[in-house]
Amino acid sequence: MSYWFHDQWIFQWPNVWAAQEWVIPATAIGAGLFVIILWAYRSIHAPLFVKLACATAKTLAVLLLASLLVEPMRSETKPVPGANLFVVLADCSQSLQVIDPDQSVTRAEQLKKRLDRSESWQVRLGQEFDVRRYEFDDQLSPVTDFQNFSADGRASALLSALESIADRFSNRPIAGVLLLTDGNATDTTEDTVDWSKYPPVFPVQIGSDEPAVDIQVHRVAASQTNFEASPVTVTADISVTGFPSEPIVVELLDEHGEILETQTVTKVREGQLFATRFQIKPGQRGVLFYQIRAYAESQQGVFEDASKSSEATLLNNSRTVMVNRGHGPYKVLYVSGRPNWEFKFLNRSLSEDDEVELHGLIRIAKKEPRFQFREKDSNANRIFTNTDDQAKEQVEQYDEPVLLRVGKLEQGELSGGFPKSADELFPYHAIILDDLEADFFSQQQKSLIQEFVSLRGGGLLMLGGGESFVEGDYLRSPIGDVLPIYLNSVSPRPGAGEFSLALTREGLLEPWIRVRTTQQQEQQRLDSMPQLRILNEVGALKPGASELLSIVSNRGESRPGLVTQRFGKGRTAAFLIGDLWRWKLHHSSRDNDDFERTWRQTIRWLIADVPQRVRVEAFSIKEAPNQPVKVAIQVSDESYQPLDNAEVNIEVTTPSEEHLSLKAEPKDAVSGQYSSNYVSRTVGPYRATVITNNPDGSEIERVETGWVADPAAEEFANLQPNVKLLQSIAQASGGELIPLDRLEAFVSTLSDREIPIAEPTVRSVWHTWGVFLLAISLLSIEWGLRRWKGLA
């Protein structure tokens, strides 16, 4: 089968000859006329090329007319009108709200015009097929017509829509699917799609392949560190097309729309990503949201007045990111062998951090031997001699140390001294041991501290002093096994005298160790510190340990000062200096808070990765229809083992302040894990409070989380049509890619394609207007040439 004159069917070769008895007469007549034509033009005086052209045109016309004597017919099949289905599937997602170069209207407006039911291609399609019309964004919707077409959908679930069509009409005669889209699907996966079950898909490309004028914020991320100068860092990747050599303004806004910081980026390369970074310190706890938006400097105020924009769209100029500052308060247990300056300054430093609670056990009197003489009427320690008799049963006895409890303690908390069970100790996130001998703890408590680090994932910091490390006899104890340094093979060294601190190469790479911005400023800080005098001698570093601070004596000897290491699920640190407080006494100015910042950053590092009893994570399920948000919860018991049979409820607050309640269900075959899915129907920030209860109904914890529903991020990730995807769909399903302006020509060819239900038809070639036009054209050419040359 062949066709001429663009894509219109003009002449089709015959495959049936109705009057075969006329073959010989028609051949004889044609041959005779051919001989007469040759004889006639041989006797004419004219240029050779003119005679050849005229003879050829007349001969072809005569042969064409002579062939009609045998009645050439065309036998073919045609679709039975109305017996076959044909689906018109239109993309109504917001990705069509793009203005292509050299266009004054959006892609959606162009498409809506072609979707008018009075369009010739729709009229002809309805004459031959049972047409079913659908729209799709994040889901498939049937429509009677496209009169109310509006491209405002949140997503482009292209593959899901095609799959639904294939399933819905799997047992019906369907001739094909006309898919009108830009091809920028948001539900594509890397899995290979089996197109064998799909009907032929004929994608119609919407949009131009030329790059659009656009500024796009691609990715926004927030990270929190223990470096107090920048606890939250918000970064964004931005690309610019069509603004050569123009500065780009990038703004950081809070969730109330207030601009927090503005940066102007110059020398932006066309079409290439550049990164911007904002460092902020949130003034409140909980789930917070920040927005990054970008625009050309010459178009200031474009978000308030869109008419100022020359971009293809403004819907991809901004992105929102969540920052979760609601993990605290963190509880730190400080245990000291005697009152000292270190605790005073540590407590003062942490009082400025509202996410850290410092609870202290400070020994003010050691326990006395049992054989010592006592008063006859009381076993209470003599430090409580003047205490009321009624309270003597509640005070420490002779053979118990006298402890001072400091901090915002609940009633009965730490009343029995250092915790003796996991239920008492595991609610804490970190332990600090200062100038305290190993015999202060029972063997059970020593093992409990080791489990606190290895199983619970807590942090342990031991400070230097007269009764720490080797001097505290921690060798061959469970606590000594946790420390990052060996306590044996300690060779006696002459007194270090006075010494100073120095950052190691690894220390320079840790932001929580540094206080100043540059390495030079950090060195100036260390040089201005006073000379220290108390240092604990230890053995070698354990494998995997990192030395972050070193001690440099006046004789130039270097020894470990601060050593850290991972241990099980937690982390440990050994700070071998016992008089860091001299630093604060030397720099007592209120303008210099380096000492306080150092303590806050150190404690932040110690508690940074300590797991909570309830851990919550919210993330989008990209491969699922409508891309719901999955809230995954992991619940542990008091010993931080997975807790089954917990009751987990989720209270969701939408961007419109609507409150919804969800119930998280246990995850199959995974102990202690629960989850719930939620489809975000409204664009904007979402907050969720996860409420967990024990099997007996008592509440465990309330944890806040959140997420951002930002479908425009994926919808406008690429403004150019995804021609590659459309071509692969067409090729694999047996269709072809159709330009938008060729819809009429395409529909006119459908009847000649393979159709499920068709009927045979026979047509006379002579009744084809193309044959008659060809014969007249040939005779007209011959006559025109003769008149031009004045031939008789």
UniProtKB/TrEMBL annotation:
InterPro entries listed in its UniProt record: Class_I_gatase-like (IPR029062), GATase1-like (IPR010768)
Coiled coil regions in record: none
Pfam families: GATase1_like (PF07090)
Top-level taxon of the source organism: Bacteria
Membrane-spanning intervals of the chain: 22-41, 48-70
Annotated ranges, domain Putative glutamine amidotransferase: 415-607
Keywords of the record: Membrane, Transmembrane, Transmembrane helix
Protein name: Putative glutamine amidotransferase domain-containing protein
